[in-house]
């Protein structure tokens, strides 16, 4: 019995005969003739596999998040060791096997059941065995390709060369004993390279990547040879015919054992991932690739089962139609109960209480200004944090903790308000954790300077992938009142990582391996705990604690939602939803005391409030507040945090004008900007595909539209108001990946760093004047490599501050009569003039000249 579908060359000849193409001895000419047919049949036969291969390529090769994942895989002192390499390789192998394997007994059963029909099926003759041996090689090639930055063509050519060599191997090497020896030889080569790789892993960077890439190609050759032998075995068994009384499962015994073993293994591993997510702690790419393999296997199995007979196909179609009808009649939709925000289990002391209004906080500020006897203007600092995932959290918290260290804890006392959005809201949680553990400190230990680095070096992506592809997906399809989603899992991870980082700062030796109760996690404390405390005469706002505005966005209508420590007056926050008021108080009222709506009295934690601001699409789910709506990442509305800060400034300015304090003051609008673009209104732009233009505009508006507008608005305020200084503290992405600006002093680490930085560059563009610019699309999710963290810390070190920041810190020191601490903790960072933050004097002077004539 002939099986041309098992051999590429034979299949090309068969298709040529089927379509009556002119015969020729040149194989490549015949291949070109039948190529459209081959492409169509491959898409039809392997559309599921191709879809997940495309998703794999998009996530790791095209998303900027992928670059940091790759860097963290190889950089020294990464959070994962050799096990991550093993898990990732096994995940790719699992995807490859799922794409290749078939239940041969089901194929044969379909053939027997349709034998007497008018159009019988011959699946073992029609299944493209040769193609299903080639497609499973692609995951190995893709992973090898994404290890390197912009070398896709090289790896594509390597893959094509491998296919050509395997083609001739199958034609020339016929003897099975010889093939077995070659298989053993390839396995031995793979083993030797693996030993070599692990010997230099975390010691070398580029060399380790090269070895892993080579070994992935060697492994792809090995599995191809195994697949080829297994396919031949299936076809030999099929060709032997049906033995009376013998079941098909027994007939294809080895194939059945392997197939059911894969099914059992997938079932057990999925259950482990579902119920033991923290103990397994899979890296993101391992988890994603493995879940892809599970879905390929499961979807293919479902299709194999229903295609066994026409009756099963009809039954499946009727069931599908019935489900659609039931969904339409009963208006069924996905179960979203698990997206409902849960109350904080630790409870709250803020019961039957009312938050302060703005006037009360101004009175406290006024007293501080009037109590100032230093002769210096009293600094009033309004902090804004731009969104941007973990990098935003690190940039905001690292700078503010550095400022507190330099002023021995006095800087925090001058922060009047903090407005954060998205990732910077997570940074706010880090800052408040630091403040809560160093209350009333007169000196800050240098160990706290490493708190942000310890927190943001963790993997906060894996749980999101697990939720997206497994837990949240299943809960959405199954009726019931589910309680937790991937947001709550992320909150637990962030709370644990933060609590352990605190233990490290306090000097605990086993900080990374200890169990911490919820009551010991700062981020799980009640939101209002950080702002109010019980006094003899009731709840009072904590001394030297700023107004906090954590910005989110209601997805129902795109409006701004704010978790605020004070009441939001409608005069200034005229379109903002007072989420904290709705959650904590009896009712939300307007400026005249008229009730707008009732509250639900449901306390939440600080971690929940911060998390509701950072719900980036796909990585997080929307958070539904009962009766108020669903909330998503605050960056959907406005990504700078300056909108809410300017609302505070407007109220503050009116109060200062109407009820001026008896003392001098200076307002600083401090903008922690971590990576959004510069204002280039007339830079050269190319035309885009018509269908993508609206999507690009919608996505860019909060980041390059609204954020840019409010930045310019704040700059204008700083220029025209003589009592205001606009103080942007920018992280420059171009300098961050500049290998000429070393972030370490050790020569070996410096060499590795230069190799790593090349991997972090997403693109290089040539400007109209001929100069070249590196384009670094920072990851918007929750992962930072140790290299990026170290370089961000270097950029935030005192030597790279501009004059105005230093002047502010000196002013804080003089007002509070504190001396400068030792600068020794920052001596490990090299100093580069290029990293010094520029002053914004040019823009300020232009505005003053235009509006004030000086």
In short:
With 854 residues, the protein is α/β, with parallel strands linked by helices.
Strand content: 5-15%
Mean pLDDT: 87
Report the major sheet.
Answer: 9 strands, mixed
| Shape category | elongated
Low-confidence stretches: none
- Strand element count: 15
**Tally of helical segments:** 32
Structure characteristics:
nine-stranded mixed beta sheet; single chain; alpha/beta; 15 strands; two-stranded antiparallel ribbon
What report would you give on this structure?
With 854 residues, the protein is of the alpha/beta class. The longest helix is centred in the first third of the chain and has 34 residues. The chain contains 32 helices and 15 strands. The strands form four sheets. Strands 1, 2, 5, 6, 7, 10, 11, 12 and 13 form a nine-stranded mixed sheet that branches. The model has no long low-confidence stretch (mean pLDDT 87).
SSE map:
Blueprint: H1 8-18, H2 27-45, H3 47-62, H4 65-74, H5 82-100, H6 104-113, H7 123-126, H8 129-134, H9 138-146, H10 152-172, H11 176-200, H12 206-239, H13 248-251, H14 253-275, H15 277-280, H16 284-306, H17 310-329, H18 358-371, E1 378-385, H19 389-406, E2 415-421, H20 423-437, H21 451-456, H22 462-477, H23 486-505, E3 532-535, E4 538-541, E5 547-554, E6 560-564, E7 576-578, H24 579-584, E8 587-589, E9 595-598, H25 606-613, E10 623-625, E11 629-632, H26 642-658, E12 665-673, H27 692-720, E13 724-730, H28 733-736, H29 747-760, E14 763-766, E15 772-775, H30 786-795, H31 803-816, H32 841-852
